[in-house]
Amino acid sequence: MGFVENLAVWPPELNEVFERSLTVEFGSLTRSGKPVTVPVSPYVGSDRQTLDVSTGLTVPAKADRARANPKVCLLYADPIGEGMSDLPVVIVQGQAAVRDADLQRNTDRYVELSGSKYPAAVKGVPKIVMGRLVYYYARIWIEVTPLRVRWWLNRELNGEPNEWRAPTDTILPPSDPYPIGDPPPPWRPPPIDWRPVARYALDHLELRDLSTVDTDGYPVCIPVTLSALEDDTLEVQFGSDAPTLLPGPACLSFHSHAQIFTGQENRTFVGRYSPDAQGGLFRIERALGDWSSPGNRLQVGKAFLWKAPKLAPRLKAEAARRGQPVPRVRVGRSGSRSP
Question: For residue range 192-204, what is the model confidence (pLDDT) as tens digits?
């Protein structure tokens, strides 16, 4: 196994993965220690000491989990996009710090970075329309300080990985203080029957990733292949040199997006994982609520505008919980810094 010494940041050969990846699986833990993993947009911190993701202010569950338990993981394994198939698969485990003390600064940063990373998604969108999407652009940032990084040549995870660990004196910044009051309920309730959701995911969404919890209490997420659904169980297979997956609570994520990113589609299931000689078995217990944005740019835009008035009360309430006004979408600003 190769080991890379780097006392400042992650190995430089991984910069391209972290900079160019269009989606990343972000894994966090519930208060009971169960993993929940969803695809999000990845960014590199401005000081290049953290790997950052975000969640909408109106849907703060990912941030709430990371603030309660800062042990998180990031899986960079999506080959969709020009030249992405040549990049390694990377698993990062690290410490999260939640940033929501300056919502306007967070929003400015997301407007700037998301527009640069996904230009096709905002091309030709009038500023007045983007201003109506403040519920989407108003963000909570989650900065992840990498502590352990492993990488393989491909999604099959065959061949021993390279590994890097952060120095033992690495500074782990704390999160911003908890907002006052209770968090909002889920925006999208989970489906009553998960079976048609699972059948759809198996038929249409080609990227599948499984998360469990390792011996150090961190979520670990790996790409997998799946068998057909039998009753409530899927057979899971993965590379011979993948990290060891322990039996217990698990999360299975399906997702997909176009080569030119304008939106993505995903489905998430929670249940239990049991290892066996072929890989393991994942028994589905339920599906989580869906926050997909599938379709072309016009379809995604219409769906986003439809949500705006419905999410306006949540937006106002979540800003108030943090003692701040609702931020504005300020298009064309430059020099935004990492919160």
Answer: 999 999 999 999 9
